[in-house]
Design goal:
This protein is mainly alpha-helical and 525 residues long. The chain has a four-stranded mixed sheet with strand order 2-1-4-3, covered by helices on one side. Helix 9 packs parallel to helix 11, helix 11 runs antiparallel to helix 17 and helix 11 packs parallel to helix 18. The longest helix has 54 residues. The N and C termini lie far apart (68 Å).
């Protein structure tokens, strides 16, 4: 125990030394983070799901989702996460520290290369898809740090003490299961880098064995704690399980593969469907990085068989961030891809390793433009949601006025229920690009979810109504169908103690919910 304590103290001292030696780098990366996330950092822009967390504690649900690390962080660190600044600031600070540890663990020594590789790692705009959620973003930043810290322990420790890396690795998985892939990628990049620098002819497979052992140990620790907490809380794991479908993969492997590779192509090509704005320089940057890695592989002293093995690992490195899509029917939400900042940083690092000054300067110019476009993309995505939220607030104000008018015309003293028919469909624009939650409206999510709309109205201080029960919704389908669509003044009408708001015809989701509970012989078939 004393020896382990000494080892931990030594690692902590190493962290502080690393921080002091890289203060200039911290300043540069912090400036990049501020440019990319300043708008979101200093504003409270409600994102889908935050309206749920704002009015009730969802802490216990983290255990049901297999994310017991988030349970403890939510309980002990930020019990009310729907607040400005602190959650995202925490995420960005730990994200920055994670990149510093990765640079150190990967053995990046050049100041220029540290800035370039680190800049890519902190600015990658795909992280905006997760950082937009104040309910989990602080945990994601901490999870990234645990990934980097696990690699740091593996690199700095000796002998069996390398196995201590399994502890932070397990914690990262407990925060978000997607960090399993991030861990593999971080360790894989370190392994490739060491082999390319080596003067040996053969690959050190004992290092791969150590990495595999750490991976198995970390998953075992995560699984043991998860099962224990499920038993203690008498709950079952859910949500995460609904995404995975091995049977579908086996039956539709070709179609699933096409979808996964289509997403991969859009990510690496800088498609505006992913990043809000086109990042044209990204493809060139990735190609140059791969070319540089290929040159390093050709020049290194490894045997032909070893070079082929390393080349296969490099191919795996490109595909690995998207591997979960094969088990999710080919559908990959960008928020799942938390390993991409590590993957992009690693690709850039490997591409510049042992290259000539001219090649590095050429790569530096590409990376600099790429980082600038990353920051532009992040701001475009966050401003899209900011403007969509403003539009929702204007719509909510109009809606509340119309409800008050309809109540007066009907002569009703008290309203209890709200029924929403159809949903608002706002087409994407250059100013408000739409991708997943970015640019989305609370009045369109889930094809018109009345409970989400009521919670959103609650954020504006309106708490008078509750959702109309399913039985009553079925009985009112005829009256609602006959009503005109919003913004016609008759699109808001009062029937007894309920008010119906009709944005359009019943959506598929609304019809399924109503007919699944109570069969209306006219509208349910």
């Amino acid at each position: 125990m004393v020896l382990i304590t000494k080892r931990i103290d030594a690692l902590a001292a190493g962290l502080l030394i690393n921080l002091r030696q890289n203060l200039y780098l911290v300043a540069v990366l912090a400036a990049i983070l501020l440019a990319a996330y300043g708008f979101e950092l200093f504003n409270l822009n409600l994102t889908i799901d935050e309206e749920v967390h704002a009015f009730s504690s969802q802490t216990d649900r983290w255990i049901e989702q297999g994310r017991w690390g988030m349970y403890f962080l939510n309980t002990l660190l930020i019990p009310q996460p729907v607040i400005p600044f602190v959650p995202l600031f925490t995420a960005l600070a730990f994200h920055l520290f994670a990149i510093l540890l990765l640079l150190n663990s990967w053995g990046v020594e050049s100041k220029l290369e540290k800035v370039l590789v680190g800049g890519i790692g902190v600015a990658y705009p795909g992280m905006a898809y997760m950082y937009t959620f104040s309910t989990i973003n602080f945990g994601i930043g901490i999870g990234l740090f645990f990934v980097a810290f696990a690699l740091f322990i593996y690199v700095k420790a000796e002998g069996r003490f390398k196995l201590l890396a399994a502890l932070p690795a397990a914690l990262s998985i407990a925060i978000y299961q997607g960090f399993t892939v991030a861990l593999v990628i971080a360790f894989l990049i370190q392994f490739i880098s060491v082999e390319l620098k080596s003067n040996d002819r053969n690959i050190k497979f004992k290092n791969l064995f150590s990495i595999t052992l750490i991976a198995l140990l970390s998953v075992s620790i995560y699984y043991t704690v998860q099962k224990t907490l499920l038993w203690l809380t008498a709950t079952n794991i859910g949500y995460v399980d609904t995404f995975f479908d091995l049977g579908y993969l086996l039956a539709n492997f070709g179609a699933v593969s096409d979808q996964v590779f289509a997403t991969m192509l859009r990510v690496y090509s800088g498609s505006p469907s992913i990043y809000g704005t086109p990042i044209s320089i990204l493809t060139v940057t990735v190609v140059v990085a791969l070319a540089g890695t290929t040159l390093s592989l050709i020049r290194c002293k490894l045997s032909i068989a070893s070079k082929i093995f390393i080349a296969l690992l490099c191919c795996l490195l490109i595909v690995l961030p998207f591997a979960s899509g094969f088990f999710m029917r080919g559908t990959i939400a960008m928020r799942f891809l938390v390993s991409l900042p590590i993957a992009f940083s690693g690709l850039i690092m490997l591409g510049m390793q042992r290259q000539s000054r001219g090649v590095i300067l050429f790569a530096a110019s590409l990376v600099t433009i790429c980082v600038f476009q990353f920051a532009t993309s992040t701001n475009a995505l966050f401003s899209s949601s900011g403007l969509a939220l403003e539009a929702d607030r204007v719509l909510a104000g109009m809606l509340l006025d119309r409800i008050a008018d309809a109540k007066g015309l009907a002569g009703t003293k008290e309203l209890k229920y709200l029924e929403v028919v159809g949903f608002i469909e706002r087409p994407p624009t250059r100013l408000i690009p739409k991708s997943e939650t970015f640019g989305a409206s609370f009045f369109e999510w889930d094809q018109g979810n009345v409970n989400r709309i009521l919670l959103f109205l609650k954020t504006l201080g309106y708490q008078d109504l509750q959702a109309l029960p399913l039985k009553d919704r079925s009985e009112m389908m005829e009256q609602a169908t006959a009503m005109p669509n919003w913004p016609d003044k008759e699109s808001v009408r009062v029937f007894g103690t309920a008010v119906i708001v009709k944005f359009g015809p019943y959506s598929y989701v609304q019809t399924q919910a109503i007919c699944g509970a109570v069969k209306n012989p006219i509208y349910c078939h």
